[in-house]
Structure formats: structure tokens, C-alpha cells
């Protein structure tokens, strides 16, 4: 039987002593000038970033939004294969779901990636083809990091629970194969704390530190289920050397190492 995503992630966290998810969001307007003329600028950018950050990466998290054109999809494929060549799992932040028949097509995204983010809005059948891929990770959007995350997710249901609490309860039920996690933003530290109490067994992907100003300490304190979870930074790592042109990737490597060190200090105090 193949190892589960969370077992592989645990191995990776142990080997690198890192819980950093490096977000690969290669915004074409921000990548260095000297890479823009390449045939696949995003792939050229990501390859250099991976070379400098992989030692500090528990996982890479490309966001599908940054690859939504023909060259982008080719770049994404190369990026995933290259990350695997460095033994780093890849979590595709795609936030997908649709009626079951359509989600079966979306689930093909997991042929390449090791894990995916999904949108619970359409309910269980819309996620089943992802959930059925038992060796792959499925992170359900629960309490997102954006300012409007509270518009719907904080609404109180007639049962007295909030929408995000219901999502967490459902995700726990959907976790029949032990392959489900939650996305909970670092900008919502109180929700992080209460969700950890509500679903102690579900690992969290925690975005929103760095550029979004979230609470990295709370991300570490509450993001992990039995030591497994991820704290993501995208722009804060990959564009740390935006002003440096040729040495941009080195700066990304330093930023990833610094973040790993900082999160590990919180991990030590959380133990
Ligand atoms: O609630 C969410 C869900 C996903 N994201 C994604 O994570 C990264 C964060 O990027 P930063 O540059 O570190 O802010 C990005 O891909 C988002 O789309 C999130 O931020 N919040």
C-alpha cells in the first residue's frame, strides 16, 4: 500500500526539520527582467527558486492561478517534476470542486501533485473524487486568511455553530482515508485555536503570514496535528530578492532558511 500524503509529509518535515511551505506564485510582473525572455519564464524562475530553497522546504505550494495559460501549465508540470526530483512534495493550491462528474476531471490534477486545496461549498459529492485518492492530501478551505473570509465563514447557523465550524466537522467526517486537512489562515488566530480543539486530528495548511500580516506563532501553536502541518509563505520568500536581479534566488533561499528557523523557535516552545 502506498504511503499516505501525511506520512510522506511527516518524513519530509523530520528530514528537513522544517514546516515551511514555499509558495510558488511566479507573478510575471515581478520576476527578474533577465528571465522574461525565456521560453518558459515561470519555469525558469521556479527552477532557480527550488535550487535555493529545497533544503528548507517541507513542501512547495504552487497556486494554480499563476499558471492558467498554455505556457503556465507547461511550467507547472516542469516545476512539479523538478520539486519531486529534489524529494519535495507538492501541494497544488487549486481550490477546486464541482458536480461529481466534473470533479472527476479535476481530480486528474492529483496525477502530478501530491495534495490539493478544495472548496467545500458544493458539499461532499463535489469532493468525493479527491477524497477517494487516499494516497493524496486534500486540504478543505475552512477559515481563509483574506479580509472577506468572515463574510460567509463566520455566519452563525441555526445549530449555533459557525459555517467554518460546520466545514471542519464535515471535513472530519470526510476523512475516512486519513487524507484530509484544513486551510486556516494565520490572520485568524482565535479561529486557529478553536479549530485545533475541535478537530485535533486534522493537519492544517496555514497561509497568511508575511505579506498578509498573520500570526506566525499561532500558526505553529495550532497548525499541527501530532506534529504534521504546514505554514506557508509565498511572496515573502520568492520575492525576497526582487530588487537583486541575478541573485534573487539566493535571497529566496535565505528567506526560507530564516522562516524555518523562526518557526522552529515557536515549535520548540510549543512542545
Ligand atoms: O486562505 C487562504 C488560502 C490560500 N491562500 C494562498 O496562499 C498564498 C499566500 O501568499 P502570500 O504571498 O504568502 O500572502 C497565495 O497563493 C494565496 O492565494 C491564502 O493566502 N489564504
From TrEMBL:
GO biological process: 'de novo' pyrimidine nucleobase biosynthetic process; 'de novo' UMP biosynthetic process
CDD domains reported for this sequence: OMP_decarboxylase_like
Keywords: Decarboxylase, Lyase, Pyrimidine biosynthesis
InterPro entries from the UniProt entry: Aldolase_TIM (IPR013785), OMPdecase_AS (IPR018089), OMPdecase_type-2 (IPR011995), OMPdeCOase_dom (IPR001754), RibuloseP-bd_barrel (IPR011060)
Orotidine 5'-phosphate decarboxylase domain sequence ranges: 19-251
GO molecular function: orotidine-5'-phosphate decarboxylase activity
Similarity field: Belongs to the OMP decarboxylase family. Type 2 subfamily.
Secretion signal span: none
Listed transmembrane segments: none
Organism: Halopelagius inordinatus
Protein name: Orotidine 5'-phosphate decarboxylase
Pathway: Pyrimidine metabolism; UMP biosynthesis via de novo pathway; UMP from orotate: step 2/2
Source taxonomy: Archaea, Methanobacteriati, Methanobacteriota, Stenosarchaea group, Halobacteria
Reaction(s) catalysed by this chain's protein: orotidine 5'-phosphate + H(+) = UMP + CO2
Enzyme nomenclature, EC number: 4.1.1.23
Superkingdom of origin: Archaea
Enzyme class: lyase
Catalytic-site annotation from UniProt: 95
Amino acid at each position: 500500500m502506498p504511503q499516505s500524503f501525511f506520512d510522506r509529509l511527516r518524513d519530509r518535515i523530520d528530514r528537513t526539520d522544517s514546516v515551511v511551505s514555499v509558495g510558488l506564485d511566479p507573478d510575471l510582473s515581478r520576476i527578474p527582467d533577465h528571465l522574461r525572455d525565456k521560453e518558459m519564464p515561470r519555469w525558469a524562475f521556479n527552477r532557480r527558486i527550488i535550487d535555493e530553497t529545497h533544503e528548507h522546504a517541507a513542501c512547495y505550494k504552487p497556486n494554480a492561478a499563476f499558471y492558467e495559460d498554455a505556457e503556465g501549465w507547461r511550467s507547472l508540470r516542469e516545476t512539479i517534476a523538478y520539486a519531486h526530483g529534489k524529494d519535495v512534495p507538492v501541494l497544488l493550491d487549486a481550490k477546486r470542486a464541482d458536480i461529481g462528474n466534473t470533479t472527476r476531471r479535476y481530480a486528474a490534477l492529483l496525477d502530478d501533485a501530491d495534495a490539493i486545496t478544495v472548496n467545500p461549498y458544493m458539499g461532499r459529492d463535489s469532493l468525493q473524487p479527491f477524497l477517494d485518492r487516499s494516497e493524496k492530501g486534500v486540504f478543505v478551505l475552512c477559515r481563509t486568511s483574506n479580509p472577506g473570509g468572515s463574510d460567509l465563514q463566520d455566519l452563525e447557523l441555526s445549530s449555533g455553530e459557525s459555517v467554518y465550524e460546520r466545514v471542519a466537522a464535515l471535513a472530519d467526517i470526510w476523512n475516512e482515508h486519513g487524507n484530509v486537512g484544513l486551510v486556516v489562515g494565520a490572520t485568524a488566530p482565535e479561529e486557529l485555536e478553536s479549530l485545533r480543539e475541535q478537530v485535533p486530528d486534522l493537519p492544517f495548511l496555514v497561509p497568511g503570514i508575511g505579506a498578509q500580516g498573520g500570526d506566525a506563532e499561532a500558526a505553529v501553536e495550532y497548525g499541527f496535528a501530532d506534529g504534521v502541518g504546514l505554514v506557508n509563505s509565498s511572496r515573502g520568500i520568492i520575492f525576497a530578492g526582487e530588487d537583486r536581479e541575478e541573485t534573487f534566488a539566493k535571497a529566496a533561499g535565505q528567506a526560507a532558511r530564516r522562516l524555518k528557523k523562526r518557526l522552529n523557535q515557536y515549535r520548540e516552545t510549543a512542545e
